[in-house]
Amino acid sequence: MKLDYDVVEDVFDDTTHIRTLTEQAPLPGGGWLLRTTLYTPHHITMDVIQIPGKKKKKPLFDPVA
Predict the structure, then answer these.
(1) What secondary structure does DSSP assign to 40-55, as a single string?
(2) Contact, 34 vs 53, CB < 8 A?
(3) Torsion angle (degrees, nearest 10) of CA 20, 63, 23, 21
(4) Tens digits of per-residue pLDDT, 27-65?
(5) Are strands 32-39 and 6-13 parallel, antiparallel or unpaired?
(6) In terms of pTM, does the model score above 0.85?
(7) Are strands 44-51 and 6-13 parallel, antiparallel or unpaired?
(8) What is the DSSP letter of 28?
(9) What angle do CA 34, 38, 41 make, to 5 degrees?
């Protein structure tokens, strides 16, 4: 299953060289998948959360333009 992710937040800190990327994707059966990735100079960490929802496809957050 291929999900279509929208970027919610993409932040890079010049001092620590840490980047945080948060994305959201609607699930075919309803609900949302939120994916947050933390990139550091030494590690990559990812956290995925499934949010059950109604059949409405309105985004949880407004995508970054």
Answers:
(1) -SS-EEEEEEEE---S
(2) no
(3) -10
(4) 988 889 999 999 999 999 999 999 987 766 677 778 776
(5) unpaired
(6) no
(7) unpaired
(8) T
(9) 165
